[in-house]
Amino acid sequence: MTSPMYTNSVPVFKQMLTATQAILATTAADVAAKSLNADAFLQARLFPDMLPLVKQVQIACDFARGISARLAGVDVPAYDSTEASFADLDALIAKTLAFIGGLDAARFEGSEGREIVLRPGTPKERALGGQAYLSNYGLPQFFFHVTTTYAILRHNGVAIGKKDYMGAY
């Protein structure tokens, strides 16, 4: 039997990152076909104090990798976050999907009770049990950045809808 912690994390991340990869590909194709400025999309924000699209995608990938790794009890891979193009973001998502896809579901057994320490060694350090980490912190953070990515693109006129956001399930 597969751990519910695995079932409620890795397949969800795969679905949503694959959908994000597809909407970014749609955007890149649209930008190329209409000779638009790619940076106008990559640096787009919903509001001036929000992070740009490229950072939203980077953070979504960070959460997918970090949550999965911590629950599986493996080291979180560190990536440089130097993506500056749609091709770079596509490669980042592909690398993230490969990492989480390579995690053995058995490693998630018992992770609901594993202590996860957020921001260790800082004044913001906080310890959560694995279940609370996934349900109350990790998934909401991940979905915030995936949804913001979608919203930025939709706001900027990319012809995508809810079906594109959801991807295949």
Question: Mind sketching the topology for me?
Answer:
Elements: H1 4-7, H2 10-33, H3 38-42, H4 53-72, H5 86-101, E1 115-118, E2 126-129, H6 130-155, H7 162-166
Helix pairs in contact: 2-4, 2-5, 2-6, 4-5, 4-6
Write a brief structural summary.
The chain is mainly α and 169 residues long.
Averaged pLDDT: 96
CATH class: Mainly Alpha
**Topology order in helix (H) and strand (E) letters:** HHHHHEEHH
Number of strands: 2
Biggest sheet: strand arrangement:
1-2
Tell me, what's the shape?
Answer: globular
What would the CATH topology be?
A: Four Helix Bundle (Hemerythrin (Met), subunit A)
How many domains, in number, for the residues?
1
**Proper CATH architecture:** Up-down Bundle
Strand content: under 5%
List segments where confidence is low: pLDDT < 50 over at least 5 consecutive residues: none
| Largest sheet, strands/sense/barrel | 2 strands, antiparallel
Structural class: mainly alpha
Evaluate the radius of gyration.
16 Å
Number of helices: 7
Instruction: Let me know the CATH homologous superfamily.
Output: dinb family like domain
